Amino acid sequence: MLTASAELLSLPIDLIMLQQSVLSADQAVGDHALAVRDRRRAAFPEAWQAVQRCTWEAGEQAEFDRRWEAYVRAGAAVRAHPVLVRARVLGIEPAVLQALREAAVEPLS
Asked: Origin, by domain of life (predicted)?
């Protein structure tokens, strides 16, 4: 069920789905970074191998960049949505964003 603030604002489902895409993309970025960290820690466990632990391979970095670009695109789509554009003009963007964040974590009905 959507929260009262989201219901009062009548957020459209397509905007909520866009915000869910942002959350998914953010999770994908974080998951990849943690997986790389864990692999590199296992591969280079010694204290003197700190540089090797922190230096990602080209493929690891390319995958991170790909996921980051997906996150950036998802965020841009949310910001470009007509509801957010209008909220910005009206000066109520923070309230709309808060309601959107709440609505994005609730199951859609």
From this structure: Bacteria
Domain that includes residue 73, residue range: 13-104
Say if 7 falls within a structural domain.
Answer: no
Q: Is residue 76 part of a domain?
A: yes
**pLDDT (tens place) for every residue of the chain, 109 residues total:** 444 444 556 899 999 999 999 999 999 999 999 999 999 999 999 999 999 999 999 999 999 999 999 999 999 999 999 999 999 999 999 999 999 999 999 865 5
Predicted TM-score (pTM) of this structure: 0.84
In angstroms, the CA 61 to CA 43 distance is 17
DSSP string for 89-109: HHT-HHHHHHHHHHHHTSPP-
CA distance 69 to 86: 25
CA distances (Å), origin 108, targets 26, 72, 88: 20, 24, 25
Look at residue 4 and tell me if it is in a domain: no
